[in-house]
Specification:
Elements lengths: L8 E2 L6 E5 L2 H17 L3 H20 L4 E5 L9 E9 L10 H5 L4 E6 L2 E11 L7 E11 L7 E12 L4 H15 L3 E2 L1
Antiparallel strand pairs: 1-9, 2-3, 3-4, 4-8, 5-6, 6-7, 7-8
Length: 190
C-alpha cells in the first residue's frame, strides 16, 4: 500500500501496443496509423471509412471523459479485437470511489479484490450489437483502482473492450478476457 498520494500510474502493455491520448494529437496519430495501413492494403475506400469511424469514436471517448486508449498496433499481431480505455473517476462529494462504480458497470455485478497494491474492483458486461451489427458481441471488463487513501473518492478506471462474433469460439473470448486481466494485474501507482 502506498503511503503518499500517487503521482500517476504505470501499466505494462504487451509488445506492439500503443497509447493514444484522447486529444487532437492522439487522434491525428491514430488516423495516420490507420491510413498507412489502408495504403499498404491499397484500399482508399477503407481509409475514408476508417477516418469517419475514428472521428465518431473520438467524440464518444471525449463525451465519456476517457483520457487515453491503448490499442494493439502491430500489423502482424493478427488484429487482436481488444482495446483498453482509461479515465480518472471520482464519486460525488461525501461518497467513496466504490460508490460511483455501479453506474459505470451498468448493472453488472462488481467484484472486490484485496491485493498487495490495494483494493481492485472488477466487473464484466456482455452486450449484443444492433441493426447491421446484430451478430457482433461486445464484452466490457471494468477495473476500478481507488486512490490508496482510506475513504478517498477518486481513482482510475480502465475499460477493456473485446469485440467478437456471436458464433466465435468461447475459448477465444476467455483467452482475451484473461489477457485483459493479465495486463491490468500490472497496474501500479507511482
Amino acid at each position: 500500500m502506498i503511503s503518499a498520494e500517487p503521482q500517476g500510474f504505470h501499466v505494462m502493455m504487451p509488445r506492439g501496443w500503443v497509447r493514444y491520448m484522447v486529444d487532437d494529437e492522439g487522434k491525428r496519430a491514430l488516423v495516420a496509423q490507420a491510413s498507412a495501413r489502408m495504403r499498404e492494403l491499397s484500399r482508399p475506400d477503407l481509409d475514408a471509412q476508417a477516418r469517419t469511424m475514428i472521428e465518431s469514436y473520438w467524440r464518444t471517448l471525449k463525451v465519456n471523459r476517457i483520457a487515453a486508449i491503448y490499442l494493439p498496433s502491430d500489423p502482424d499481431g493478427g488484429g487482436v479485437p481488444l482495446s483498453i480505455a482509461v479515465k480518472q473517476h471520482a464519486a460525488a462529494e461525501g461518497h467513496v470511489f466504490a460508490d460511483a462504480l455501479p453506474t459505470l458497470a451498468a448493472g453488472a455485478p462488481i467484484e472486490r479484490f484485496d491485493t498487495p497494491i490495494g483494493i481492485v474492483h472488477r466487473w464484466v458486461k456482455d452486450s449484443r450489437g444492433s441493426g447491421d451489427f446484430a451478430g457482433v458481441m461486445s464484452r466490457q471488463i471494468g477495473y476500478g483502482f481507488p486512490l490508496p487513501a482510506e475513504g478517498d473518492r477518486r481513482g482510475m478506471v480502465f475499460l477493456a473492450s473485446i469485440a467478437h462474433l456471436d458464433d466465435s469460439d468461447p475459448s477465444s473470448l476467455e483467452l482475451l478476457t484473461e489477457t485483459s486481466d493479465t495486463i491490468l494485474e500490472t497496474f501500479r501507482w507511482r
